[in-house]
Amino acid sequence: MALVGVRHATRTRLRAASTAALEWASPDNRRKHASRKWGRFDENLIPLWVADGDALAPAPVREAVAEASKAGIYGYVDPSASLVEAVCAGMGRSWGRPVSTSWVRWHPGLIPALYHCARLAGPKGCVVVPTPVYPPFLNAAEDASQCIELDLGQRGGALDESLLRETLDKAVATANGEDVVLLWCNPHNPTGRVWRRNEMEAVARECASRNVILASDEVWSGLILDEVPFTPAGSLDTDVRLISITSASKTYNVAGLDVAFAVVEDDGLRRRYFRAGRDQAEPSHAGLEALAAILDAEGGGPCVLTPPRGACEAWRRAMVDHLRANRDAAVSFLERECGDLVKVAAPAESTYLLWLDARKLGASPGLFLSQRGVYLTDGAAFGARGFVRLNFCCSRAVLDEGLERIKDACAEARSNL
Amino acid sequence: MALVGVRHATRTRLRAASTAALEWASPDNRRKHASRKWGRFDENLIPLWVADGDALAPAPVREAVAEASKAGIYGYVDPSASLVEAVCAGMGRSWGRPVSTSWVRWHPGLIPALYHCARLAGPKGCVVVPTPVYPPFLNAAEDASQCIELDLGQRGGALDESLLRETLDKAVATANGEDVVLLWCNPHNPTGRVWRRNEMEAVARECASRNVILASDEVWSGLILDEVPFTPAGSLDTDVRLISITSASKTYNVAGLDVAFAVVEDDGLRRRYFRAGRDQAEPSHAGLEALAAILDAEGGGPCVLTPPRGACEAWRRAMVDHLRANRDAAVSFLERECGDLVKVAAPAESTYLLWLDARKLGASPGLFLSQRGVYLTDGAAFGARGFVRLNFCCSRAVLDEGLERIKDACAEARSNL
User: Fold this and answer.
1) Cβ A278–B74 below 8 Å, yes or no?
2) Fewer CB within 10 Å, N or C, chain B?
3) Cis omega before residue A232 (within 30°)?
4) A75: which chain B residues are within 8 Å (Cβ-Cβ)?
């Protein structure tokens, strides 16, 4: 891919970036280790796209994975009883009530789990997908069932309850007696919305009253940047048929280790959910070891809300501080330098994703920017043409370089207006 | 689970087993590393079930995986260009013609790949499954489509071409204009049949003449124990719509590393196949590193037929020798000690699986034997009630202990007749 009018990042500058607690992989090292984020495109591009952070995983995770890998035993694995208990203990603390080990279904990732959920509706049922949303939601709904979008707006604002009711009613009518599944994302990707307790209650209530299955993807719950409490769907006082899915993948930067899990309390729903899972790959040994190290180190889990401790928790807090600073820097920079060409659409109170309105750059702003040296995820696959998603889980040096390129691209666009 | 009348294996005896080239993981070590094979059931059971070997992976694989794991970079990965080229070079040598890098689709395992293939038929089409067969074939067919069985017999013998034609005709009629997929397994699991060239030609010809899609699972091609040449479907002179799927998982004992791939030459079929793949987990970084080490070390690949070299190839040859000796020992022992209660059904000219006729032990011989200290896979899920599959990829000490328990179980059954 040709680069037009961009300054090339100096490798030294990127490589030197680090903080006391967090260590950043160098671009060369990431490419050496087959990184999709850094390796898929021209190496002069600054990659601020796929939701994969640039930090090395926490030290206890690295040690556990390296130790397990050295042993040379790479056969089929089952999560150990102690790991399942640790997961349930963490979920239980987060939910404020006991979580049985029999409710857990392991997955090799969040995407297979989302497909599982969507398939519960079946081809004649209906899946409701709140948009904008990260692409696997729409893919799973379209591949498995009939799909109806719930328009959240682009601003990461409060839930429109009357629109929720109207959309669910429409889905129930479309399903015509078959199942309806609402795929929910809390915190929401890409807007970063941490759904408030009253909003989560409304979602559960409206689903329950229509017998709609609620699938709550809570993979971002460990990365909340502002003072907004996270409300797991499992903590609600409700009789909604609920599937909670999560993973350590985003919080601890281990998305390639292929481990996620679902928790399903309802017996009948769980049997259907489990039965639909014969198509999947195995969770990986390294991923299970990583999860055990995280739970062991912090005494909790990716969703735990009890007072945390340990090395992984210190790492997570350092990461949250870093992400907050990166977000604030990106927001200030874009507001100052990019005017209305690339506007911050939503406040990113969680995640490491900034949702940007770039409609003035044309229908494919992702492509426009990539041709000018910075790769963001285009909004089209999120159901939001003209928007882009910026991943700020990187060193400040990489972020700054990426922002400069966005600024230059805006200057070029402005001069052509 | 209670054990009835069995001698317990001494741990020391099991732990000491090793050969010059192969290293056997101790049961304790396998359990420590979350092994499903060793950990799922009572620890006094000898586990000769799931198709997962007890040997440590070859040294170059262990070094590559350990080195990659140490780096602490566990994000999303793409196979490197050099890895894709090495895979295609190996497949090309095996097929005797060039294989384009654009034909390759990566999977996190063989099972997701089988589901991909079966879904091409769709719910109104038909999938033909040769039985007995390892359970994911039947699962994929039943979950995705209408399923018709092609009875191979239990003896791992020659293909009945007239039954093949009859079954394919029935499938085409059932599909009524929709697609038909034949899921094929070469070499065959569980009988170990290495399909001869004339049989593979017949399969391809009969599929091609009915426009049936042929999906050839060739994951066992690296473990052929007798002097029988392996014929990859891709090496045939045919215009059948073909999907070849394979993995290093069985040959090099890395099934938990979550990497497999398909090669699809036909453009239209490949587009459909690729499009159906959005539901999957990521191939793992460790698995890609392992595959690169295998290809680099032997200059070939799991399917390569060219003269091999290097450390992984020496390991594979030692493994084949060990498996042949284990197979021969098991066959002699069973014929000598078990009479007609547990009979060798098929000759296992490949794989590390011995297909046994245990119908005289009742309808659930797997359960009967497991209650007597040795766990084999029951044939019911293979479409063959009364049969069991014995996995002999273990140290000779473990195998001997398992065989003794089978003998004792037979003696008990005989005394109750």
Assistant:
1) no
2) C
3) no
4) 30, 35-37, 52-53, 253, 255-256
Nearest CA in chain B to A288: B34
How far are the Cα atoms of A276, B117, B136, B210 from residue B214, in angstroms, in the given order? Answer: 25, 9, 16, 11
What distance in Å separates the CA atoms of residue A193 and residue A154, rounded to the nearest whole number?
11
**Phi/psi at B127 (nearest 5 deg)?**
-115, 130
The yes-or-no verdict on residue A145 having pLDDT over 70 is yes
| C-beta atoms of A73 and B140 within 8 A | no
B134, B153, B175 from B130: Cα distances, Å? 10, 9, 17
The secondary element (H helix, E strand) that includes residue B314 is helix B311-337
Q: Is A181 exposed, middle or buried (0-12, 13-18, 19+ CB in 10 A)?
A: buried
Strands (DSSP E) along B164-305, which ranges? 180-185, 213-217, 242-246, 260-264
User: Does residue B105 surpass a pLDDT of 60?
Assistant: yes
pLDDT in tens, A317-347: 899 999 999 999 999 999 999 999 999 999 9
Query: CA–CA separation, A360 vs B132, rounded Å?
Result: 61
A190–chain B nearest CA distance, Å: 18
Whether residue B234 contacts residue B96, with contact meaning beta carbons closer than 8 Å, is answered with no
* Contacts by A38-41, CB closer than 8 A, 24 or more apart: A39/B78, A39/B80, A40/B78, A41/A1, A41/A370, A41/A375
Q: Would you say B417 and B360 are in contact if contact means Cβ atoms under 8 Å apart?
A: no
Residues B363, B372, A83, B50, Cα dihedral to 10°? -60
For residues B138 and B131, is the Cβ–Cβ distance under 8 A?
yes
Distance of alpha carbon B282 from alpha carbon B243, whole angstroms? 20
Q: Over the Cα atoms of chain A, what is R_g? A: 21
In the three-class reduction of DSSP (H, G, I as helix; E, B as strand; rest coil), residue A374 is classed as strand
Cβ–Cβ under 8 Å, residues A165 and A329: no
Residues in chain A: 417
Structure tokens of B271?
């587009």
The predicted-structure confidence for A111-121, as pLDDT tens digits, reads as follows: 999 999 999 99
pLDDT of residue A278: 85
Residue B402 and residue B389: Cα distance in Å, rounded? 13
Of B29, B79, B280, the CB nearest to A34: B79
CB atoms within 10 A of CB B149: 17
The pLDDT tens digits of the residues spanning A38-61 come to 999 888 999 999 999 999 999 989
* Alpha helices, DSSP H, located in B232-310: 267-275, 285-298
Cα–Cα distance between A132 and A385 in angstroms, integer? 10
**Short-list B220, B203, B249, CA closest to B348:** B220
Is B216:B186 a contact under the CB 8 Å cutoff? yes
